[in-house]
User: What shape does this take?
Amino acid sequence: MTKYHSEHTWVRVENDTAFVGITVHAQETLGDIVFVELAEIGKSFEQASVAGVVESVKAAADVHIPVSATVIAVNEELRADPSLANSDPEGAGWFYQVTLSNPSEVDGLMDASAYQSLVG
Assistant: This one.
């Protein structure tokens, strides 16, 4: 199940790891993404801290990590082709694969319906 943070990022937990990326709303707001700056593998983050940057033709924006976690993989395909964040932001356009530092934080995030109400 995918959960959403108010900073327009998502997390999808799969077994002992999770994937993190920006939401469709974030992508639509930014427009065509032309560059992503991804954190290094092994770097740890507290929930809601800045874990990367996206740049679009309109603006640059910080990417806030939705849960406390350690990066175990970055999406090299996204680094090579930032347009993946436009075409499939909640799928092939993921940013990080992470291990959760505090799995209970996921429970405090929004489900799809609550996130849609936020951005509505």
